[in-house]
Amino acid sequence: MTDAAGARPELDRAERLSAELDERQVDLLLVTTPVDVRYLAGFTGSNGLALMAGDGGGGEAGSHRFLTDFRYSTQSAEQVPDVFAREIVAGDMLAAVATALAEGGGRLGYDEAHLTVKAHRRLTELLGQAWELVPCTGVVERLRAIKEPAEISRIRAAAELADEALRDTLEAGIVGRSERDVAIDLELRMRRLGADAPSFSSIVAAGANGALPHAEPRDTEIPRDVLVTIDWGALHEGYCSDCTRTYATGERLTELARETYETVLRAQERGLAAVRAGPTGREVDAVAREVIEQAGQGAHFGHGLGHGVGMEIHEGPRMSQTAGDEPLRAGHVVTVEPGVYIPGRLGVRIEDLVVVRPDGQEVLTSLPKELTVVS
Ligand code: ZN
Ligand code: ZN
Known about the structure:
By secondary structure, the protein is of the alpha+beta class.
């Protein structure tokens, strides 16, 4: 897909990153996480790293460096823009980084959350006194969190495709089939509709199995008159979607099941309405959590309200009781997914995927949320 501007999005990303690095007085950032390398350099292979210049190098050819091995010589020539000087490395990548940096010196940023202790020690030895290693945790992830319009289009397409696959799966009927069979069916339908893969292993959890937030689909038949929670998503053109719906498999539900569903739905709608640029993830979490606490179910909502979604199924920003003080910003894409899990009895979770807008939110998932009976 061509981006609206027709230009390589990587150039703008490198510029935004440079501004971040300047603020931290970091001369170069070592990027080793594949998803971050892909975001910055467009490279989809498994072994590549980028050295991003803090001053941006004026965006001229060779401003930044990209290193990979000979297997990716052709692929990287096609994918990595000229703003990177490309280098094909024989052997050890970290040694090649040290060689590339042998001339200069300064502050070299790295991501504490991803560089291993072993690699850190090795780099320190190889680089010697000239370079100081500076933790820059999550710098690229925070950039990735603010989506460009073309990225939002891809996530929207993934969500639409996943919605359609679930609609088709429900039409084919789920009662009497095993959870596993329904999950496989749903995943196959997503692939047939154009998904590269599911964005994570689908959850289909009926009755008491729904009380496990990350239930594995079982070889057990889905019975009548229970709640069944389905959590699924598509990976499409490198971007993920994420959605959850809880359905009834008959009219004869327990009072507890109906009440719990209504509570979660109210919490979800309140949380959703609170999403906009400005509040922190903790504040939005609190809005939804209050509804569940007031219903006396607070102890049964043990996870955060939501998470960012993009190239990864779980990324920044987080919306939870322990989220930091960073506000939600326009361009963030987050889930809103409260749940109530009553051990041994039942579970309800309802999840939408939304884009944060300056004055509100755009919901990307479109399946109805009032309690629906499926057969
Ligand atoms: Zn989900
Ligand atoms: Zn989710």
